[in-house]
Specification:
mainly alpha
């Protein structure tokens, strides 16, 4: 739904897309987590569906800019998601995040 709304806002109000994205992020309610069991991991907090999508794109070698284009997000929003993924996985870089996620069978 968020992607559709962003596409509409971008088509209608292209110059305001960054502001619209900030508003959407501010009002996003964490959705249900996806197909991994947090109890089988050491994670304190589960990754959201969007965080897992960003993590998968990271694993595929996408840059922040490419991830932003793929999901119709502002690059700053992607940086926010990447930071959240790193924090939740307890790592300090993208490569370690991918390794940890594969070890935990998140991706």
């Amino acid at each position: 739904m968020q992607e559709l709304l962003l596409a509409y806002v971008h088509a209608s109000f292209g110059e305001h897309i960054t502001y619209a994205q900030k508003l959407l992020v501010a009002f996003v309610v964490p959705g249900p987590s996806v197909a991994y069991d947090v109890r089988s991991t050491n994670l304190v907090e589960q990754l959201t569906a969007r965080e897992i999508e960003v993590l998968q794109a990271m694993a595929e070698g996408f840059s922040n800019h490419e991830i932003a284009e793929k999901f119709i997000l502002a690059e700053g929003t992607v940086k926010f998601y990447v930071h959240a993924v790193l924090e939740k996985l307890g790592v300090h870089n993208r490569a370690k995040a991918v390794i940890e996620a594969k070890k935990l069978k998140i991706i």
